[in-house]
Amino acid sequence: MNTIRTTCSYCSVGCNFDAVLDDQGRLQSFRPAVDYPVNLGKSCPKGFHLMSAFQAEDRATRPLLRDASGSMQPVSWNRALTVFVERFKEIKSRYGPEGMAFISTGQMPTEEMALLGALFKFGMGGIHGDGNTRQCMATAAVAYKQAFGFDAPPFTYKDFELSDLLVFVGSNATISHPVMWNRVKMNRRDPHIVVVDPRRTKTAAAAHTHLALKPKGDLALLYALTHVLIREGWVDRDFVRDHTEGFDELAAHVGKYAPEAVADTTGIEPQAVRDLARRIHEARAVSFWWTMGVNQSHEGVRTAQAIINICLITGNIGRPGTGPNSITGQANAMGSRLFSNTTSLFAGYDFAKEEDRKTIADRLGISPELIPDRNSLPYHKILERVAEGSIRGLWIIATNPAHSWIDKNTLFERLGRLDFLVVQDLYHTTETAVRADLLLPAAGSGEKSGTFINSERRLGIVDKIADPPGEARTDFDIFKAVAERWGCGELFASWTNPEAVFRILQRCSAGRPCDITGIQGYRMIRERGGIQWPYPAGSSSEDPERRLFADGRFFTPSGRARLIFEDSRPAPEELSPEFPLVLLTGRGTLVQWHTQTRTGKVAELNRLSPENCFVQVSPMDAKRIGISDGDRAEVSSRRGSVVVDAVISDEVKPGEVFMPMHYEETNRLTYPAFDTYSAEPAYKHAAVAVRPAPAAGPAGGPVTGGFHPDRR
Ligand SMILES: Nc1nc2c(c(=O)[nH]1)N[C@H]1C(S)=C(S)[C@@H](COP(=O)(O)OP(=O)(O)OC[C@H]3O[C@@H](n4cnc5c(=O)[nH]c(N)nc54)[C@H](O)[C@@H]3O)O[C@H]1N2
Ligand SMILES: Nc1nc2c(c(=O)[nH]1)N[C@H]1C(S)=C(S)[C@@H](COP(=O)(O)OP(=O)(O)OC[C@H]3O[C@@H](n4cnc5c(=O)[nH]c(N)nc54)[C@H](O)[C@@H]3O)O[C@H]1N2
Ligand code: SF4
Ligand SMILES: [Mo]
């Protein structure tokens, strides 16, 4: 028997599991690790069944190439790599380095992301590459960077247990981050829990106070809170004076946001705002936790910063149980934020600064000329270039945008305009994979090694438990093979395996806020039960839980945190008599992951979640519309219509409906608006109408929602 410990590759909690293998290497059991500081023996059903998803019949086991008749044919790796390199080189020579792009992920080990980012940008000479983390964490990353001088979520999970007042804004942690919620339940201080969410989610129902604000009322609400805190003098003056800048300007700005003045915008009684301000003032340790209800907004960055401001002016940062804390989404979104070479150069350096390019070139032992001198276009701009015809080749790795992208109808058209679309995935059946010209079969997290970084900045080990099926290869091996074929293999001569790359990334991190030079290899990460960054050379801390900013020093040039604000604006898509309802979207169940490519293969999980796409409608709206629970309903937006199951529920208020993102219908309706600073899609607001479904779907009528194509 042999036990291998690995990190779950679904959500960013970063639970660890012990896989027990028999002497033939067959998996005997897969259980949450009892002594891992993150999950302490707990897990959710997704993690428990992680390995089953890799057994699916539709695993991609051979490269597939579209032939002249349009059908996908198995080809050898040799042929696949030849075609890959020929086509991308041809595109590069005709349209220049900006003619090709990649879209990657927060779901691969850091070492693989780093190799991809270096290969594409330094080896193949490309410029544009972004990730699905743009759909998710870009807002938090930009908010922190502007306020703290670095993308640095300050907390440790212990803070869930040490807080007296926890405020969850746009976070449905009971289903999205269940094992974090477990840490909240371990809090012995009798904390008060507040949830700010338009819906009465499971998390809101479990809280003491639910502020069921109007969609996108957050910024006005947070400024109203700030207004009361400042007016009452409930401010930590010493902290403000010594560690922040911009307080007087902030105080002036929130002058007009009295709770009464914004009650129409927020839908929240002024007294409830005053009560929360008082609680913030009276609690010893206040923590704010935010997720997609904040990030996925046209004004997400400023909303996140309004949360950061409240923590700063009340001194709720750097102490146990405090912090403006963004909970991240995917298992390795945090690795992507630091080391994928997409939105920044390795370790948070800046592509646009010559000095930064020199530093990284020096640490990698390459010529600075190889590093592009500008940032990649963000995801939606890459797609605009595809629409214009100036990006002709796209490589999509470990993400399924043909399901998950906002207003995906336009995405379908755009993908169709490409000369060459390569998809690298575990399955050949994803909505994106079926549109590929070339499919590269990849290994999943249980079939390879590397590291992930979880929400609390903890590096955890991913370890190989089984071999990938057929000819599928690890993403690492695929990138290495592409490098060889492209003719830039010598650049990566020392990038021999994931651990060698880890050492290279450690060098890049030296002297940065995310310095990890003190970690002595994977073995130390295993032995310590994960290690949070920073961990610079010479660190002696064995403390398994560390937070940032205990000394009140931030990463800005002045060492002070910046208080940043801006007036709130209405959501971009207006409601109208034709489209009178707000569509909210998000996670619908604990057991399904995103586009269901993995969890939708596991019978035990499917039994626990609805098979059909559904729309939640309030009892009052349902009555007015004339639909009952279980009826089929047509949901339309200015982008199109779908037919789904109606679920009548008082989780949503009149005037608002909710659809889960796990079904492909949802993003046929979403409205493509983006945050001004982070370019994150505003998935959580669109104008729609709901009607009883027409008896039989007429030809050319609405798309009728039915089975998820992957789901059996
Ligand atoms: N089971 C499961 N867990 C997951 C995932 C999964 O697919 N399935 N995905 C993971 C990933 S990548 C992510 S990013 C996280 C996301 O985790 P969460 O952010 O918790 O999930 P969401 O359901 O997208 O959005 C959270 C809430 O935002 C609310 N909301 C909508 N509009 C507004 C608004 O204007 N203001 C406020 N305050 N709230 C609003 C929604 O009603 C919703 O309840 O979950 C991770 N965990
Ligand atoms: N309407 C609406 N849309 C949303 C959201 C929302 O709240 N509302 N949320 C957004 C958010 S926060 C996110 S994060 C995105 C997620 O959107 P996606 O990234 O598109 O969703 P996933 O289903 O996680 O897709 C990951 C793909 O990677 C593959 N994969 C898994 N592991 C590996 C690997 O190791 N290697 C390779 N090569 N492939 C692998 C899987 O099979 C799957 O096809 O969706 C966004 N879309
Ligand atoms: S809570 Fe997240 S990390 Fe933990 S088992 Fe569930 S999906 Fe995996
Ligand atoms: Mo996400």
Please describe what this structure looks like.
- The structure is a single chain.
- The protein has 712 residues and is of the alpha/beta class.
- It has 4 domains: 2-55, N-terminal domain of TfIIb (Single Sheet); 64-134 and 335-496, Rossmann fold (3-Layer(aba) Sandwich); 138-327, Dimethylsulfoxide Reductase, domain 2 (3-Layer(aba) Sandwich); 581-692, Barwin-like endoglucanases.
- Helix content is 31%, strand content 17%.
- The chain contains 25 helices and 27 strands.
- A 7-stranded mixed β-sheet has the order 5-4-16-15-14-6-7, covered by helices on one side. Strands 21, 22, 23, 24, 25, 26 and 27 form a 7-stranded mixed β-sheet that branches.
- Strand 2 (16-21) and strand 3 form a beta hairpin.
- Helix 3 packs parallel to helix 21 (475-486), helix 9 (218-231) crosses helix 13 (270-282) and helix 18 packs across helix 20 (408-417).
- It is globular and about 70 Å long.
- The two termini are 33 Å apart.
- Mean pLDDT is 96; it is low at 705-712.
Structural class: alpha/beta
Low-pLDDT stretches are 705-712
**Percent in helix:** 25-40%
Small molecules held by this entry: ligand MGD, iron/sulfur cluster, molybdenum atom
Second CATH tier, the architecture of the largest domain: 3-Layer(aba) Sandwich
Number of domains: 4
Q: What is the molecular shape?
A: globular
> Would you report the number of β strands?
27
Task: Please state the CA-atom Rg, rounded to the nearest Å.
Answer: 25 Å
The CATH class name of the largest domain reads Alpha Beta
SS field, number of helical segments = 25
What is the arithmetic mean of pLDDT? 96
- Strand content of the residues, in percent? 15-25%
Main sheet characteristics: 7 strands, mixed
Strand sequence of the main sheet, in spatial order?
5-4-16-15-14-6-7
Oligomer: single chain
CATH fold-level name of the largest domain: Rossmann fold
